[in-house]
Specification:
The protein has helices spanning 46-54, 93-103, 107-128, 144-156, 174-191, 202-208, 242-259; strands spanning 2-15, 18-31, 35-39, 61-66, 69-70, 78-81, 162-166, 194-198, 211-215, 222-227. It is α/β, with parallel strands linked by helices. The chain has a single domain, classed as P-loop containing nucleotide triphosphate hydrolases (Rossmann fold), CATH 3.40.50. Helix 2 runs antiparallel to helix 3 and helix 6 packs across helix 7.
Length: 260
């Protein structure tokens, strides 16, 4: 049974007096606890799909449902992380991680009463991603990779059922990016939330996802679905194995055909 469903979804928006179709007739079903990646050319509507699932945009045609309920506005059960960590510069690492608990119900109402347990949970999450001892640092005192780790913690602190990731490692150097693949895989295996990852990095998609989808040029359509049947946990050594490389080449071929 799918947990997230897009059924024949089209989204149009008005731009400079004309209508632009961002995505067209997209149908996507994601099971509860599944990790999927969406790849495709720039501007094809990958981020639009994330916004539709989160309830930040409404479909022009078709339906978007989560847990069999129509999405009609922003969902509280969603956590999001972006290419830029967007940490608030006047808050410490710990305070940034705690932010969703201060503003998302039902945690907001119980924040004062449960603050001790919330802080303990935040410290535990920071420890999981290798930021133990950095809770009191300001964002400017953290490297880019450390800021992105904190951003992942902030997205997960309220225990969302869905984690939406929009190029979360795209601005990082290759070494840090690959290190964070392992961090994210560990977090997902512990939390078992449903993850939708948008990425241009095909190795990243194959490393992390159970299923990789490819989109066409705008208006974006889903043109292929590739299940990734590799055992977990996956390691960086696995990325050099023939079976891993074969997946990457096949998905690259699909994208090349989409651009033709």
């Amino acid at each position: 049974m799918s947990f997230v469903d897009l059924n024949n979804v089209t989204l149009e928006y008005l731009s400079e007096g004309s209508v632009t179709r961002a995505i067209e007739s997209v149908s996507l079903a994601v099971g509860r606890g599944e990790f999927v990646a969406i790849a495709g050319p720039s501007g094809c509507g990958k981020t639009t799909i994330l916004k539709l699932v989160a309830g930040l945009l409404q479909a022009t045609q078709g339906t978007v449902t989560v847990d069999h309920a129509a999405v009609r506005g922003p969902l509280k059960i969603v956590g999001m992380a972006f290419q830029n960590p967007t940490l608030l510069p006047w808050r410490t690492t710990l305070e940034n991680v705690l932010l969703p608990l201060e503003i998302v119900e039902p945690h907001k109402r119980a924040y004062r009463q449960n603050s001790k347990s919330y802080i303990e949970a935040a410290h535990a999450l920071l420890g999981t991603v290798g930021l133990e001892g950095f809770a009191d640092r300001q964002p400017w005192q953290l490297s880019g990779g450390m800021q992105q780790r904190a951003s992942l913690c902030r997205a997960l602190i309220h225990e969302p059922q869905i984690l939406l990731l929009d190029e979360p490692f795209g601005a990082l150097d290759a070494f840090t990016r690959e290190e964070l693949w392992g961090v994210l895989q560990t977090l997902w295996q512990k939390r078992q939330c449903t993850v939708i990852l948008v990425t241009h990095d095909l190795r990243e998609a194959v490393y992390l996802a159970n299923t990789v989808y490819v989109m066409s040029r705008r208006p974006g359509r889903l043109i292929s679905r590739t299940p990734v049947n590799l055992p977990r946990p996956r390691t960086l050594e696995d990325t050099f194995r023939p079976e891993f490389i074969e997946y990457v080449h096949e998905i690259r071929r699909q994208i090349t055909e989409a651009l033709a």
